[in-house]
């Protein structure tokens, strides 16, 4: 939907007070997307699109950098360096699953990456259990696990009626399940702050 | 060390009150090991050793079945069926990491398998973050994450002096870190019981 | 080097009579690259860059589409559809290795993809044993194997002095080894034409 | 079928003059199988069954060691060492595919392993394109490719009527296709001897 889609998102922000995170697909669109979005997302397929990484490094907005489905943790951090090197230190990493032989889940969500990133860098890392598993029943346990592993945030798909969603329905939570999960996540995070090693 | 090793384990049980879990490597040894151990472990390399699976299915002791490093969740459950089919329903599954392209961790610990097993079967599932990551620094976050994902237990390597361990030192906790983790795991488990979905 | 690099390539074509294949990295550069190159290459990292695929679909030049390191054969063929759908039927597929757990080779060159592509589509498929293995000693056997598997061509790195190459030296053939290989490949191809099933 | 099955195989050898290769599943059966078979096969699932490896190392018969589906080339050679260390130098390695994310083929047949083994060891290496691909249409191209890559032999499934096979039908050649392939393989091998680098 190009710019009109961005305007709709801006209206939604106005109406709800929510921040907007949206994906930018190529270097040529960075300026336009940065004019509307609060955070620019680099998708897993673009994790090594170095033109794009440099462009968001100069855009003045925070960047959410998703891990490529076949990217090692080291490659992911190298990709982040392209953004940091342009002077943009507001980089958030997002683990969203890697491709393995397992077929039950869409990807294999690698929660050990959370602890690895915490050890190897100072960057915040969030987790996307929806894309990472492809199954809504696994979103709750993996969201709780991600927080317990030390994740700084979650990216979760929600749909008012997952059964009728045009895309990603099977991995989306309905609003009631999402609200219940968020309440438990908040309490878990508070529990963990009281028990930090 | 063969039978003498089992006798040492039995003495350790006598002295400490701890239960003994030990690995059985082939069908011919099942009777001997079952005479000493409380739980017989099937290692990842033997997950599809069908002779051995049938033999432990007839041994009368609980069995801890580790997931093969290249086994799908479906194959793992099929392996468990070989034990169940012999009438031994005391099977505990243990997720211990799968082999992927990632090189930072020894294996990729697949915590989504915990929720998958809970959905697909009635069997208890535990998690081994020591073998699953190969790095002691990742043991604590992944142990906490495993419990938050719904795991029924943990298998953690401890060594009085990891730096001098003959094997698996880099993935072993020292007793102080282990004790601190166990205390937090217990409180996390209690927290989760109060917040079950 | 941007456009100057393309001019150097054009001069090399003038001097040698060789055709030029060069990579295009984003949709914005397609027109410029198409003005110089005989064949536009889409690199493995851009295999699912759909803007770029559509742009080369409209460029009027043949396209060499490399397989992504984590792309299934089905996904690779779907990527080719984006180019074909724009009316450009001159698409050449290039197998260059997939990412697996194996560490001896840089990638695992999947020669079964050659036969699979021949069965599933009408597109020509070539093989890159240099990137596919990362080791010059494996280039000859895998080049011969690729031709025997039915590949329509090879993409091989050559350097006058591999030990001093700025990049990709360990996987490059020197000119003497390359010439010897080419002679044998030609004879093997002739042999295979006489023995087609 | 235990020993009766071995007797049937011995009768088939008597009647046909063909050598017998058959799999041995555990150390306890090695003596019995060695009494009948010409070559003992260690299956992919037992590649790291060290009791069994040692036992066949002492059996006095050649051993065919299949690569594990998640075994690196280095681990495969280490497994062979267990047999060699017992004084049995007649070890044949067999590449039969590794597990990857690809779904079109049952496994990914890693022909680069042939050249790697030739470089790293003195052991003969053969290739199994039937299990390696799981699809009979890919058996011919991958058999030819294996020979071109330098393989010392092939392991190919044949069934008089693949459509009615109790197991492995989809990957089995019928006798006519097998005979045609063998003729071409023989001529290809002769061609390659005339063109060895």
Automatic annotation (TrEMBL), chains A, B, C, D:
InterPro entries: Aldolase_TIM, Class-I_DAHP_synthase, DAHP1/KDSA, DAHP_syn_2. Keywords: Transferase. GO terms for biological process: aromatic amino acid family biosynthetic process. Residues 2-187 form the DAHP synthetase I/KDSA domain. Coiled coil: none annotated. Pfam families: DAHP_synth_1 (PF00793). GO terms for molecular function: aldehyde-lyase activity; transferase activity. NCBIfam families: DAHP_synth_Bsub, PRK08673.1. This is Phospho-2-dehydro-3-deoxyheptonate aldolase.
């Amino acid at each position: 939907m190009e710019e009109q889609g961005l305007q709709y998102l801006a209206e939604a922000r106005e109406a709800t007070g929510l921040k907007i995170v949206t994906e930018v697909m190529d270097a040529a669109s960075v300026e336009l997307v940065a004019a509307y979005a609060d955070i620019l997302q680099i998708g897993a397929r673009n994790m090594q699109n170095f033109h794009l990484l440099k462009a968001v490094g100069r855009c003045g907005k925070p960047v959410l950098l998703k891990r490529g489905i076949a990217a090692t943790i080291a490659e992911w951090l190298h990709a982040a360096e392209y953004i940091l090197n342009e002077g943009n230190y507001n980089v958030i990493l997002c683990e969203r699953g890697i491709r393995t032989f397992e077929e039950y889940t869409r990807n294999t969500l690698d929660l050990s990456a959370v602890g690895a990133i915490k050890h190897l860098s100072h960057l915040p890392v969030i987790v996307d259990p929806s894309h990472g598993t492809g199954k809504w029943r696994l979103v709750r346990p993996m969201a709780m696990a991600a927080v317990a592993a030390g994740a700084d945030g979650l990216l979760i798909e929600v749909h008012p009626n997952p059964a009728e969603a045009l895309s990603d329905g099977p991995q989306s939570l309905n609003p009631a399940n999402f609200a219940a999960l968020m309440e438990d996540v908040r309490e878990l995070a508070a529990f963990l702050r009281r028990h930090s090693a």
